[in-house]
Design brief:
The model has no long low-confidence stretch (mean pLDDT 83). The protein is 53% helix and 11% strand. It is rod-shaped and about 95 Å long. With 127 residues, the chain is mainly α.
Length: 127
């Protein structure tokens, strides 16, 4: 008994057999490093609390005021502030012996855009 073999159609309209686009990372190596550094800086509870404190005080906050608001030693606060500065999330102005820190709002906007782009990517392909 001969059973006929039905060959599937290999045309562009049959999505199961349409040629696939090659996989490529839409994010370059340098951009990925920058974004990872930014998000990693945000991924710490102490740094989030420091950002929260600085955000609530629109002006600049002195280091000794930041230390006084936490149960951490000054070197630990300085370490977290350095990480936040390296990620461009905060900056400081020096007045005499004191450093006054403030939030760089544009960096927070960039972090929001990074996360937003990740959540939108799958939706664009579904449309």
């Amino acid at each position: 008994m001969n059973i006929p073999v039905v060959e599937p159609k290999h045309d562009e309209t049959n999505s199961a057999f349409a040629p696939r686009k090659p996989f490529e990372a839409p994010l370059g190596e340098e951009d990925a490093r920058y974004q990872a550094r930014l998000l990693k800086a945000l991924a710490d509870p102490h740094r989030m609390r420091i950002l929260s404190l600085l955000s609530r005080h629109e002006g600049a906050v002195c280091v000794f005021e930041i230390v006084g608001a936490f149960h951490l030693e000054q070197p630990t606060i300085s370490h977290h502030l350095r990480i936040l500065r390296d990620a461009d999330l905060v900056d400081c102005r020096r007045r005499g012996l004191w450093a006054y820190y403030y939030v760089r709002r544009e960096a927070l906007d960039r972090a929001r855009n990074i996360i937003g782009a990740l959540t939108e990517t799958g939706r664009e392909e579904d449309a």
